[in-house]
Amino acid sequence: MEGIGQPFLGDHGRGRKMHELGIVIKVVKTVEAFAKGNGVEKIDTLVLQIGAMSSIVPQYIQACYPAAVEGTMLKDTKLKIERLPGAGQCTQCDETFNPLESSNHCPRCGSRDWRLLRGKEFMIKEIVAY
Ligand SMILES: [Zn+2]
Fold it and tell me: What is the 83 CA–ligand 1 centroid distance (Å)?
């Protein structure tokens, strides 16, 4: 089941603690609502996409997941997380580059003035039903 297309902006978190748990609970509720609305009774795998520049840490998501799905229809559902690479564009020379790989400056002209094109995504990519 491709493209639920539900963006989550979890980047305005107040403090680190339990930030991810709240996000995962929200994801689980969204998936449950989606499944019920589409007559899906069991979900084999849930696939999330997390941008490399996001403040959401995939390991924390994984760690929170068992607690978040406890007692829900997702309790036996596997979680898969895909990382999306970051991309920035230089405002001086229009070069596009991966900010994580070039220490936050443009590899062509050296400018530190660039805007983020991609990398802060947090998406439910798909759910795989039985
Ligand atoms: Zn540049």
Answer: 25
